[in-house]
Amino acid sequence: MFALVDCNTFYASCEAIFNPAVRGKPVVVLSNNDGCIISRNAEAKALGIPGMLPFFQVRKQVEDGGCHIFSSNYELYGDISARVMRLMEPYAVEMEVYSIDEAFLSLHCDDFHAHGHAIKDMLWQNIRMPVCVGIAPSKTLAKLANRAAKKIPRLNGVCVLDTPEKWEWLLARISLDDIWGIGSRIKKRLNEMGIYNGLQLARSDAKWLRRRFSVVLEKTIRELNGESCLPLELSPEPKKEIICSRSFSYKVTELHELQQAVSLYAARACEKMRKQCGLTAMLWVYLESFQDQVHFHRQKLVKLPGLTNDTRVIAEAGADAIAEIFKPGLRYKKCGIGLLDLRTRQFEQLDFYAPQQSQQSRQLMSTMDKINERFGRYTIQLANTGIQPKWLMSRNFKSPAYTTRWADIPVVRC
DNA sequence: TCTGGGGTCCTAGGACCC
DNA sequence: TCTGGGGTCCTAGGACCC
């Protein structure tokens, strides 16, 4: 059996951990640049505040409702997530960390109800993280069970689907896009074929639908019938590409500012890449401008002469590429850089003619990472990223990095 | 005025190889 | 006028997820 443990309104719940004053009050968390609402707790939902909507459109409603507003604080959420996962580990035979706020666990026990409640209670007691638990014989059904645990109050946060009668009862009552793996496009096409609810899908011909859609849908159908087709992915595969892109706080028009931004994002992306011992020889830069209600995208792929993890090399290549796709006179809202086709040193293809990254460069990067990890992310950075540049995304409601920065540690006075 | 950011997998079709 | 058969690799685009 699989359990899916999913944190309730994760970002909003993180904000409440070290700030109990907001517990029981409406809370909303905004995306980068304070653009959209990306998380809101039950109290905020009760006020009728919709999710994934531009903040400015609902700002009045949010403020009138007395909501506590937070900018997103990924340093905090990432650290809380790691703690939640660590606490859950002893409760599973094996565990797959599926996203920042959820994990699949494989279970071996007699009483799934009791086990689900044990996990839920433990997480609340240890870290004040409210969760719901869904348990079923396949990951897709566990997802569904979790949804039910969240929606149906009398389940008290834990739902076990251990017989076909139970999951079929639920499947008959849900729309197709409530099923994991089915989005709006596939839902629409299935509707056109006369399939509207989960049970109808579960009873359709998987092989026939595979030919019309893909193997993914076939597996979904089999999983809905209690057959496990998606195994746990235990050790996360290293990423094949790493992208870093952000919107600016205002519309940027100057080339040098775009180059500062792409250097900064390159540094972040390289840091992530080095963390997984990755190297790249291929990068991609991207510019998005906005004028007269129209978006323009320009992008460029760059091949480096050899594999590297050196921030300086990649930032420079990125800045050069930006200069090539830059068109003066446009107002830019966003830019980004992607490191593609990541390799590890182990599989480095040695090329007689390609320049190899020097020992000195590797050591410099490793030292830089160690210092930044010890003393904070931007202790050492490239000079060409600018010093507190104005275009940097705004985060006007950011909470402290309670658990990851010395200066921000909460103080208890008695 | 103001609309996030970061990933994965699958398939079809073209290029190329023997 | 006639024009094989089988395979791999790569890329773009579509769809999905959180």
Provide a descriptive summary of the structure in words.
- With 414 residues, this protein is an alpha+beta fold.
- The protein is built from 14 helices and 13 strands.
- The strands form three sheets. A five-stranded mixed β-sheet has the order 5-6-1-7-8. Strands 9, 10, 11, 12 and 13 form a five-stranded antiparallel β-sheet that branches. A three-stranded mixed β-sheet has the order 3-2-4.
- Strand 2 and strand 3 form a beta hairpin.
- Helix 10 (206-212) packs antiparallel against helix 11 (215-224) and helix 12 (255-275) runs antiparallel to helix 13 (311-325).
- The chain is globular, with a radius of gyration of 24 Å.
- The mean pLDDT is 92.
- The protein binds a DNA duplex (18 and 18 nucleotides) through helix 3, helix 8 and strand 9.
Quick recap:
The protein is α+β, with helices and mostly antiparallel strands and 414 residues long. It is built from 14 helices and 13 strands. Strands 5-6-1-7-8 form a 5-stranded mixed beta sheet. Strands 9, 10, 11, 12 and 13 form a 5-stranded antiparallel beta sheet that branches.
Q: Secondary structure elements and their pairing?
A:
Layout: E1 2-7, H1 10-17, E2 27-30, E3 37-40, H2 42-46, H3 55-64, E4 68-71, H4 74-88, E5 94-99, E6 102-106, H5 112-127, E7 131-136, H6 139-151, E8 158-160, H7 164-171, H8 184-192, H9 198-202, H10 206-212, H11 215-224, E9 242-252, H12 255-275, E10 278-291, E11 294-308, H13 311-325, E12 332-340, E13 343-344, H14 359-375
Parallel strand pairs: 2-4, 7-8
Antiparallel strand pairs: 1-6, 1-7, 2-3, 5-6, 9-12, 10-11, 10-12, 10-13
The structure holds a DNA duplex (18 and 18 nucleotides).
